[in-house]
Specification:
CATH class of the largest domain: Alpha Beta
Number of helices: 12
Number of strands: 23
Structural class: alpha+beta
Number of domains: 4
Strand content: 25-35%
Radius of gyration: 24 Å
Largest sheet: 5 strands, antiparallel
CATH topology of the largest domain: TIM Barrel
Shape: globular
Distance between the termini: 35 Å
């Protein structure tokens, strides 16, 4: 990631946060602390707001990491789409209050205190178009302007045709539950059922627990163990798989849309998924659990936000690969495509493009296109029996960026997926530990967990298409090979049903 958003429903972060962002080259979208609500405009409140804004802008404006100020989160959209059921006769009053607070006060102060950065009155917003419409646009989610927030919990989240071709995606995402080790801190054994009072209490998004399972059921067999504890942990796992896949699909769509303009829509130059971190142990849109443990989504983000990335998708009858580059320099890249049967750990087809294409820095270019049916038939495949992996190679035939994959059917319909036997050996490697894995079959979404030992892996939640792989575990406290070997658990998609 090269950008983070400090959300208007949270806090202004401490100085160290901005200092670290300065040092690491992380850009900060800074909201003022107003979100998802109607605020008063009495004199005392306005004066308090003015003092707050002056103090925060003067405190933070010297940080080069801050690239934009935003007056609020979703309050323009709330008025435009009537979140609060305001009677029509009173709407002009609330719009006037909105302009008073965010335009005549917050915006006025920011433009006086800091002329070096743009100021957005709200997010999402149509920017100059919203201003022309009296600061509250008819449709603040219009993809032709500004930024958008997009959530869809009932539609298939892997269907890229449902995503908006926006200029900037500043919010999007899907929920998952955190790991058992995180939930154990605040629960008892009786709580560990998906339909428990605990699960309902911890869920602050209406129908969120049901939505996660409904979405997962579109693609996967849901956990069905008769062991209540196993079914619960398997369900936690399947929500993380689904979340990671949902956000991956949408992020990759936005990244490959950066160089395309279709019917006036596209040229997407930013994607900030919601959300990074948690404030308690419960289900949320986060990729990092309370306490710092990475969800599967956060491991996926290492790849879908990689500076060079191959993105595969199908459009009508063709399979495409786009080469996405956020590099500052131009490169020449070629594609390498492998077709696998779920029942065999060796590819049935390998397709190398020996003629690299020119990829300008900061662009996305279509470098591979093939009708899906001939591609599969030529490899002796059906959509249910096979899947595709692919990567990019430079002019020296060296891989650049991560290996990606494309599933040709929902995995609940896939034919030939084996219940893999994966063995693991933990070895000490300096301050870290190596985990050497061996598998006798292809394994989707291999998930390694060290239980109560805090730390992170170099890779996790991956599609294992080789007989062996080594990942690194970085512990956040002193530990030993013996302890890690005792705590290590391995789960794959085929283990949950």
């Amino acid at each position: 990631m090269n950008a983070l958003r400090v959300w208007g429903g949270g806090i202004y972060e401490q100085d160290l946060y901005y200092e670290l962002c300065d040092q690491m080259g992380i850009m900060v979208w800074q909201d003022f602390m107003f979100a998802c609500a109607l605020y008063p405009t009495e004199k005392n409140f306005i004066q308090s707001v003015r003092e707050e804004v002056i103090q925060q802008v003067q405190r933070l404006k010297s940080h080069p990491s801050i690239i934009v100020w935003s007056g609020n989160n979703e309050n323009e959209a709330a008025l435009a789409t009537d979140w609060f059921d305001i009677p029509g006769t009173q709407r002009p009053k609330y719009v006037k209050d909105y302009v008073t607070l965010y335009v005549n006060n917050i915006r006025d102060i920011v433009l006086k205190e800091d002329r070096s950065r743009p100021f957005l009155v709200s997010s999402p917003t149509n920017g100059a178009e919203s201003e022309q419409e009296g600061w509250v646009a008819v449709d603040p989610y219009d993809p032709l302007y500004g930024d958008i927030h997009f959530y869809s919990y009932t539609h298939d989240c892997l269907d890229w045709t449902s995503f908006p071709r926006t200029r900037f995606a500043s919010e999007y995402g899907f929920q998952s539950w955190p790991s058992l080790s995180t939930l154990q801190q605040v629960s008892t054994e009786d709580d560990r059922r998906y339909d428990s009072a605990f699960s309902s209490h911890r869920q602050h998004h209406g129908d969120g627990n049901e939505q996660m399972l409904q979405q997962a059921a579109l693609h996967y067999n849901l956990p069905n163990s008769t062991d209540i504890n196993k079914r619960y942990t398997d369900t936690l796992y399947i929500t993380q798989v689904m979340q990671a896949q949902c956000v991956k699909a949408q992020s990759e769509f936005y990244r490959r849309s950066q160089s395309e303009l279709i019917k006036g829509k596209g040229l997407t130059m930013g994607a900030l998924y919601w959300q990074l971190n948690d404030i308690w142990q419960g289900p949320s849109w986060s990729s990092i659990e309370f306490g710092g443990k990475w969800k599967m989504l956060h491991y996926f983000a290492q790849n879908f936000f990689a500076p060079v990335l191959p993105v595969g998708f199908e459009d009508e009858d063709d399979f495409f690969i786009y080469a996405v580059s956020d590099l500052s320099e131009d490169v020449w890249l070629a594609s390498a495509v492998f077709v696998y049967k779920w029942s065999s750990i060796n590819p049935v087809c390998s397709i190398y493009n020996k003629f690299p294409m020119f990829i300008p820095g900061g662009s996305a270019v279509n470098i591979y296109q093939q009708p899906s049916r001939p591609l599969l038939e030529g490899c002796g495949c059906t959509r249910q029996s096979c899947f595709i992996t692919f990567h990019l190679e430079d002019s020296k035939e060296q891989q650049l960026g991560p290996t990606n994959y494309h599933f040709l059917s929902p995995l609940k319909d896939a034919q030939g997926i084996q219940r893999s036997n994966i063995s693991a050996k933990v070895l000490k490697e300096g301050e870290a530990f190596s985990v050497f894995l061996q598998s006798d079959a292809i394994a989707p979404f291999v998930w390694l967990d060290m239980g109560a030992v805090p730390g992170r892996f170099s890779s996790n939640g991956f599609l294992m298409v080789t007989t062996n792989i080594t990942v690194t575990f970085y512990p956040w406290r002193p530990t030993t090979v013996i302890e890690l070997s005792q705590y290590l658990t391995i789960k794959t998609l085929r283990d949950v049903y």
